[in-house]
Amino acid sequence: MKYKAIKFSRSNQAEFISDLRKRVKEHFETNKISVYGNATMVTKTIVMFLLYFAPYALMLTGVITNTWILLLMWAIMGIGMSGIGLAVMHDANHGAYSKNKHVNKYMGYVMNVIGASAFNWKVQHNVLHHSFTNIEGMDEDIDPGKLMRLSPHAPLLKVHKLQHIYGWFLYGLMTFLWLTTKDFKQLYRYKKLGLLKAQKRTYTGVLIETIISKIVYYGYALVLPLIFIPAPTWVVLLGFFIMHFITGLSLGLIFQPAHVMPTTEYPIPDDTGNLETNWAVHQLFTTTNFAPKSKLFSWYVGGLNFQIEHHLFPNICHVHYKKISKIVMETTKEYGLPYNSEKSFMDAIVAHGKMLKSLGRSQMA
């Protein structure tokens, strides 16, 4: 089914999102604050970039030569890369980092700087994932390939019985797919779906942009370290792997427990592509928050532990999610709608693991 054929109800519980938007708007107007980023966001951006580029500079200039400390530097770069993706690039590509469109555009292109395609990410995440959350065949976040089954409507294979064991390792390999084949496969798929025209881009233009960005990335992130870091080749290659594994695992552990959970649903459109609920209510049934009281954790992951708020208000910067979460929670309660939330990050991981096990052993979860 083509993405344009899927339609949400415009009448079923439509009052919920109307009232919620009014209340959230009043919150910003009453407190005279912008929905975009603030000084906290700027500070966070600087910290994340330093976590990524400072260790790189220390290694490349030969300040650090000890093998174990070198590997530690690569690990810190992985933490920084994850932070850039979660807490900087993410808001920018949603147009929420700044009211200045040019700032959002160029901060969003940080995705290319760390080895992936900002264009592909925006289509996969903004267009498909946010529009059709947990809908089989539409939401690519629940379609990682044959080795993982993240939807009860996906084909069940024998190997899936062990996915709750090996799945965590595959999450760590996520960014390696970006570095190699995924961006090119996605771009070709988006061309066939007509999504490039909708974004006013051409296949050739995005392809050239992607190839150039990958050459630049491999050049500074791998070739230069191999040339200038005073260490054996295997140390540099291992460090590069550690950096990307930390990034992939971090992204997997933040995004997947937000939607692949025992409490979330996987709605199926009818034969004509219609869904019973409206878009906002659909987000509530397919999304889960976690660790809402952990300030440091929320700071690092770009507020994405408040996934419900993010999905309902993707154009609001994440620095505001915690405060508007009270409004969202009260409104969902008033309308008798679900507000799924796990007390801690570990609770979310455990629940996600149980869901992986369930999806690996039954046709329907």
TrEMBL record:
Q: Is Glycoprotein one of the keywords? A: no
- InterPro entries named in the record: FA_desaturase_dom, Fatty_acid_desaturase
Q: Which residues cross the membrane?
A: 33-55, 67-86, 106-123, 165-181, 202-228, 234-255
Q: Which residues form the Fatty acid desaturase domain?
A: 67-341
* GO terms under biological process: lipid biosynthetic process
According to the UniProt entry, its GO molecular function terms are: oxidoreductase activity, acting on paired donors, with oxidation of a pair of donors resulting in the reduction of molecular oxygen to two molecules of water
How is this protein annotated for GO cellular component?
A: membrane
Q: Can you name this protein?
A: Fatty acid desaturase
The organism named in the record is: Roseivirga echinicomitans
Keyword terms of this UniProt record: Membrane, Transmembrane, Transmembrane helix
